[in-house]
Design brief:
Layout (H helix, E strand, L loop, with lengths): L21 E12 L12 E3 L8 E5 L4 E5 L18 E11 L5 E8 L2 H6 L4 E6 L2 E4 L8 E6 L4 E9 L15 E10 L15 E2 L2 E5 L5 E3 L4 E2 L4 E4 L2 E6 L3
Length: about 240
């Protein structure tokens, strides 16, 4: 059974998996989605974030416990969800893959935001499709939602559709509403390791922070956040957040 704990500060959800079933938990990446509302416009634009460009790809490498990006601008995978106007409809596509894995790997997604952002965005509709299957409808998700399971030869095709209502007006013009998206990958048959406070000297590889627990069993948390320029602590792992210039 999963056990969930609500932190009094923020909306962090902790999930504990049965020890005999899941041995490694990998936080694939965290992307800060910025909604920068412009002055009210009655014109609704529909556009694809990928356009004519190749679809962004995120690959988890099980043997190295590392992550690589392809067809992206740095690590920002939600570039289409910025500079929004009331009435906008945006689409963002991406592909999740797993390579060199010993077991099938399941991917999960959850969102995190503060109370003000959640209130402002309560009428913003977001639908998320995984391999054409609707997994999130009309809203944010504050607990892990399973996107699907992959092997070495398969992948997950993600499509996020964001619809901004025309009811949002000038009161939100020019403001940013950050939503942190966490994608996690877990190899079936392994055991999740309990997380202790992060080690500030943990090794870093291409923006990926790797830590371990006191038992010596490895736990890799891969956190990459784009959008703002400050240091934050997320899921007790310190990571740098870069502001896109």
């Amino acid at each position: 059974m999963r056990k969930k704990r609500r932190n009094k500060i923020g909306i962090f959800q902790k999930t504990v998996f049965p020890k005999k079933k899941v041995a490694v938990s990998v936080m694939l990446f965290a992307v800060l989605m910025q909604l920068v509302m412009q002055p009210m416009s009655v014109h609704a634009s529909i556009q694809s974030a990928s356009g004519k460009n190749a679809v962004p790809e995120v690959s988890y490498h099980g043997k190295e416990q590392s992550i690589t990006f392809k067809n992206t601008d740095g690590t920002d995978l939600f570039q289409g969800f910025k500079n929004l106007m009331p009435g906008d409809v945006r689409e963002q596509e991406m592909i999740l893959k797993a390579k060199n894995i010993t077991h099938e790997t399941s991917f999960y997604l959850r969102a995190e935001c503060d109370d003000e952002t959640r209130e402002i965005l309560k009428d913003v509709r977001m639908d998320l499709y995984a391999n054409d299957r609707l997994v999130v409808e009309n809203g944010l998700i504050l607990e892990n939602v399973k996107l699907g399971t992959v092997s070495d030869k398969t992948s997950i095709q993600l499509k996020a559709v964001l619809k901004v209502p025309t009811s949002l007006g000038n009161e939100v013009a020019g403001r940013e509403f950050p939503v942190k998206w966490y994608f996690s990958a877990q190899q079936d048959g392994d055991e999740i390791v309990s997380v202790s406070p992060s080690d500030p000297d943990a090794g870093q590889n291409n923006g990926i922070i790797q830590t371990g627990d006191e038992s010596g069993q490895g736990l890799t948390l891969l956190l990459i956040v784009a959008g703002v320029s400050l240091l934050i602590i997320i899921v007790i792992v310190i990571c740098k957040i870069f502001r896109k210039k």
